[in-house]
Automatic annotation (TrEMBL):
<dbReference type="Pfam" id="PF13472">
    <property type="entry name" value="Lipase_GDSL_2"/>
</dbReference>
<keyword id="KW-0378">Hydrolase</keyword>
<comment type="similarity">
    <text>Belongs to the 'GDSL' lipolytic enzyme family.</text>
</comment>
<dbReference type="InterPro" id="IPR013830">
    <property type="entry name" value="SGNH_hydro"/>
</dbReference>
<dbReference type="InterPro" id="IPR036514">
    <property type="entry name" value="SGNH_hydro_sf"/>
</dbReference>
<protein>
    <submittedName>
        <fullName>Rhamnogalacturonan acetylesterase</fullName>
    </submittedName>
</protein>
<feature type="domain" description="SGNH hydrolase-type esterase">
    <location>
        <begin position="37"/>
        <end position="230"/>
    </location>
</feature>
<dbReference type="GO" id="GO:0016788">
    <property type="term" value="F:hydrolase activity, acting on ester bonds"/>
</dbReference>
<dbReference type="InterPro" id="IPR037459">
    <property type="entry name" value="RhgT-like"/>
</dbReference>
Length: 274
């Protein structure tokens, strides 16, 4: 008389269950690219200019492994020169559905004293419209960002707005085209106000003589960021993505502080709500 082996009887059912689970398990999120276009405030830097840091450099650290940051921003570029140098078309050609393009210009567009890069407000708007339309044509997602502030305080210690016309133009295009807008100009000014006129120096490329071998004469730069400054600006951008509930925010790797503008302030400053 033969006895059935219970293990042999159960084993086929286990195998069948595993096969069914393999077919019914949700597919992992597909990887998407996050393209950055803009100027030196966001761009990758070379080691010879360290500790100068563009805020696009630490941006990828805020997302999980399904987001690949492709930073195409370049020093000294305006919307006009970015297009004229054929830096935009390769991005358009590479865009895939659900990718993102973060667009932040303005610093060089508004430089009337530099005709090689200056772009009139009217042409600036047209160029932003082109970026938006061609991104959407590839079923990707444009996000407009107002130009990040420069460090400029008045005698009473109040932060001054340095990109009035071009920030307004960016916001106008965003409203007209129903594009998400990250008002980094406003947010970065609020951040600098909380650090104060002196305390905010740590966010920028402010170095004394012989403080760093790349800058033996020192550096007094109120436009470009230190490592800390770049990270804080990137944090503001990601914080606003979450606040606006952009789909990209679902891929943020770690929870952000409740109020990103109040974190990691210098020990000798007293943050206040502006």
């Amino acid at each position: 008389m033969k006895h059935n082996d219970p293990a042999r009887t159960v084993r086929p059912y286990i195998l069948l269950l595993l096969v069914l689970m393999a077919f019914t398990a949700p597919a992992p999120p597909k990887k998407i690219k996050l393209y950055l276009i803009g100027d030196s405030t966001i761009a990758q830097k070379i080691k010879q200019t360290f500790p100068e840091t563009g805020w696009g450099m630490p941006l990828g650290t805020f997302f999980d492994s399904t987001v690949v940051v492709d930073n195409r921003a370049q020093n000294g570029r305006s919307t006009r020169t970015f297009l004229a140098e054929n830096r935009w078309q390769p991005i358009v050609d590479a865009l895939q559905p659900d990718d993102y393009v973060l667009i932040q210009f303005g610093h060089n567009d508004e430089a009337k004293d530099k005709p090689d890069r200056y772009t009139s407000p009217e042409d600036y708007r047209r160029n932003l419209l082109k970026f938006v339309a061609e991104t959407r044509a590839k079923k990707a997602n444009p996000v407009l960002i107002t130009p990040v502030t420069r460090r400029k305080f008045d005698k009473e210690g109040r932060i001054m707005e340095t990109h009035v016309e071009y920030s307004a133009a960016t916001a106008e295009v965003a409203t007209a085209q129903k594009v998400p807008l990250i008002d980094l100009d406003r947010m970065s000014r609020n951040l600098l106000q909380q650090y104060g006129a002196d305390g905010s120096k740590v966010l920028f490329l402010q170095l004394g003589p012989d403080e760093h071998p790349n800058y033996p004469q020192g550096r007094n730069d109120n436009t470009h960021f230190s490592e800390l400054g770049a990270r804080k600006m990137a944090q503001l951008v990601v914080y606003e993505m979450r606040a606006q509930k952009l789909p990209l925010a679902e891929r943020i790797a770690k929870p952000l502080p409740k109020n990103a503008t109040l974190t990691a302030s210098p020990a000798n400053s007293q943050p206040t709500t502006p």
